[in-house]
Each structure stands twice: as structure tokens, then as C-alpha cells.
Predict the structure.
Amino acid sequence: MPERTLVVVTGPTGSGKTALAIELARHFGCDIISADSRQVYRGIPIGTAAPTPGQLSAVKHHFVEMLELDSYYSAAAFESDVMALLPELWKKGDYVVMCGGSMMYVDAVCRGIDELPTISDEVRDATLRQFQELGIDWLRAELQRVDPIYYEMVDKANHKRMVHALEITRQAGVPYSSLRTGRSKERGFRIVKLLIDYPREQLFSRINRRVEAMMEDGLEEEARSVYGLRHLNSLNTVGYKELFQYFDGSMDLATAVARIQKNTRVYAKKQLTWFKRDDSMVRLDPSRPLMAQALAAICK
């Protein structure tokens, strides 16, 4: 009897994860879990490259457009929700496909994350307000003061990660670094991770074309529809930030589109760096049929 298997389809943005995940899910007759930190929100399907209505009707997806833009969600919540959902999905069969490039979300399910305190609205609002008023230099200095160990290892250009560490430190009353064990949790199922591995220049060309396609599909109109909510964390992401600057008059449209392309490529580079750390990933060569490679890895 086959072993219960979670098939993870991942890769950098623009690599074609959704199409492969749907093909695999149809082959195995199973559902898809979306591991994307922005696709969980309603109202922004173009900018988040959410599955199309046709794709959603082809295979049942979970964690797509389930929350309002002002809702709070996290990798810890995702881990808890997925682990609660999986027993129901196993009743349907021995395979479940998880698809996404949000590295923290993928790791949360595959490795687990440390038990951390739930951040109160008061702590979250106060920390975010201070960052918005005092800027990233204050954020770096404050994190260095309260948690010098984590400060040495964090990406100091990633304000979201530093704000999160500061929130946890304030909520717990101890440094964030002291709560990080780095230990993987035991999972009662097999995990096969598939990485769509495009050569960098080819990937960047795909990203540039995808941004152009998003603009043709109505990304500007979608961004305008949520412009009044631009202060929300769910919209603090590539695509919307640049168009909001265009709406504010700080750059023209052509510059905004070029900036979206550039910042998406920068994000893809971060994803590639993350993937390099994981030796368990099976790298799929997109110059060869992906489905055949994927099935060979899964059925090994």
C-alpha cells in the first residue's frame, strides 16, 4: 500500500509551479494546498498570480483567497491549519500536493516551526507604528539592543523579518533568538520536494514577461481598487508597492513596471538562495518533460 505522501511543488516566482501541481493533483486524484503567503487574501488575484477560475475548478485548492486584506496570518498559523486539514485530505487518498514559493510556509509544514507566542494587537500595532514613524535605522538599532544574537544573522534589509522578531521579543519578554530551536518536527508522512530549476537568465526573462502579462490582465486596475488600503501588511508586497508609488505621483508608469520586474527578480534571487540550503529537494530540469521527472521522483 502506498505511503501517505505530501508532494511539494516549489521553485522561484514565475517558474510554472501551478501548472505542474495541477497536473500532479489530477494524476493522483488529490487536492492542492497553496503555500503562498499572499494568495490567502481575497481581491488581489492578478498581483499574487493566484490560480485562475479554470484552474480552481479543475482541482480543489485550499488556502486561496480565504481571508480579507486586513486579516493577520502567519507561517505558524499556516502550519497549524495545514496539519489540522491533512487528516481529512488523507481520507481521499494517499497523496496531497502542496504548491508555493513562500519559503517560510513550505518550511513550516515540512520542518515545523518553533512554538512562539501569539502577538497581541497592541504589540503588533505599537511596533508597526514605531517602525513607520522612526524608520528602518531605528528598527535595526532596537533589534540589536534587545536581541543582538538574532540581529547578527537577520537580513538587515528585510524590515518585515526584523519587525516580526521585535514583536515576538516584546510579547514573550525574552529575545526571539532564545525561542528558536532549529529542530525539525517529526511528521507522520513522507515528503517529496520538487523544485522547478530554471537557469537564472531564463528565469529572469520569464519574470519580465509575466509582469508584462499581469499589466495586460489588469494589475493596474486591481491595484487601484485596493489603493485606499495601502497601509495594510497584505499589500506591502511587490507589484502593489510600486504601483502605489505611481498613483502617488512619485514615478511614472513605465518606471513602476520596470521596478516591479526588478524587485520580482530580487525576490527570486532570495528564493534561490533559500532553496540552495535544502539538499532534500529534487531539482527538475524544465528543458525536459516535468511530469515524467516528477513522477519518477515521487514513485522512487
In short: Residues 121-146 form the longest helix (26 residues). The chain is about 50% helix and 10% strand.
